[in-house]
Automatic annotation (TrEMBL):
UniProt keyword list: Membrane, Transmembrane, Transmembrane helix
Keyword Transmembrane helix recorded: yes
Pfam families xref list: ABC2_membrane_6
Protein name per the record: Transporter
The keyword Transport is annotated on this UniProt entry: no
Transmembrane portions of the chain: 45-67, 82-100, 141-159, 165-191, 212-234, 254-274
Cited InterPro entries: ABC-2_transporter-like
Length: 286
């Protein structure tokens, strides 16, 4: 299986554009298969989607309970925190919907079932990402959209063309950053094998952290999520521009528009990590 993985990587390097097209096609076919399977039991789909919506809504309920006792959290009002919540929940929900199955990779590495993906004529990353594609995750995206809509109604924003254009840019850029973190966390499981909880600390844990203003966290943590794992570009920095608030760490104003560039850089690094992890895979030996 080591030779199979190396051959797969060599083919990927030889024809990058063709491999991307092939990967997207494989992803679409696998995801469509799981969608058809899901829609065969529509009542179950509706119930699980609502359950996903309700479970994620509890996070915002916790924020509402906090504000029932205080007027501001770290100097941020309820509407401003709701804006952070929506601007983190939507990108994470999109990334989780598209590529959230990466957290199952460690199990495949441990039991050797990754071997079946290596022998198929399709990129392994596309197959892993689309495995058990779950439409129920739309519940998180829907809940984030509702909270963001509430925030935009209650928060007094001096809208400009730049701020309006920044809204969809930060949502898509944030989804790209989270997707890169999912891939990098998956690559780490080639080495650690039983590290899904470690990966979740950066994915689900990072999303939860971004729901709160940077002013409630220690400066070292803010530096870490700005310069090491750049989750601050998902919503903290762009939201500061939209709200007219000072940036954490006294960063220059242009960083608010950097999420797409950060997403591309993170994606490239995550791709390198994935290829290195796949090359190191040696199956279970059984």
């Amino acid at each position: 299986m080591a030779e199979t993985a190396e051959a797969s990587e060599a083919a990927g390097r030889a024809e990058p554009r063709g491999r991307v097209v092939e990967g997207l096609r494989a992803y679409r076919l696998v995801a469509a298969m799981w969608i058809r399977s899901t829609m065969a039991y529509r009542t179950s789909f509706v119930l699980t989607t609502f359950g996903n919506f309700a479970m994620t809504a509890l996070d915002f309920v916790a924020i509402l309970l906090m504000f029932s006792r205080v007027d501001a959290l770290g100097g941020w009002s309820l509407g401003e925190v709701a804006l952070l919540y929506g601007l983190s929940g939507i990108p994470f929900g999109l990334a989780d919907l598209a590529i959230g199955s990466m957290d199952r990779l460690g199990r495949r590495v441990r039991d050797g079932t990754l071997d079946t993906l290596l022998v198929r004529p399709a990129p392994v990353l596309a197959q892993v990402a689309a495995d058990r594609f779950a439409l129920r995750r739309l519940g998180r995206v829907t809940q984030g959209l509702l909270v963001l809509g509430y925030a935009l109604v209650v928060v007094d924003v001096d809208w400009t063309v730049a701020k309006l254009l920044l809204m969809p840019v930060m949502l898509l850029g944030g989804a790209g950053i989270f997707a890169a973190v999912f891939v990098a966390a998956g690559a780490f499981q080639f080495v650690a094998q039983d590290a899904s909880e470690v990966a979740n600390a950066f994915t689900y844990g990072g999303m939860t952290m971004l729901q709160y203003p940077p002013t409630v966290f220690a400066l070292d943590l803010v530096r870490g999520v700005t310069f090491v794992v750049p989750l601050a570009f998902v919503n903290w920095l762009p939201a500061c521009f939209v709200l007219g608030r000072p940036y954490p760490l006294d960063l220059p104003g242009w960083v608010a528009f950097a999420p797409p560039l950060v997403a591309v850089a993170c994606g490239a690094l995550a791709g390198l990590a994935w290829r290195a992890g796949l090359r190191s895979y040696r199956s279970t030996g059984s």
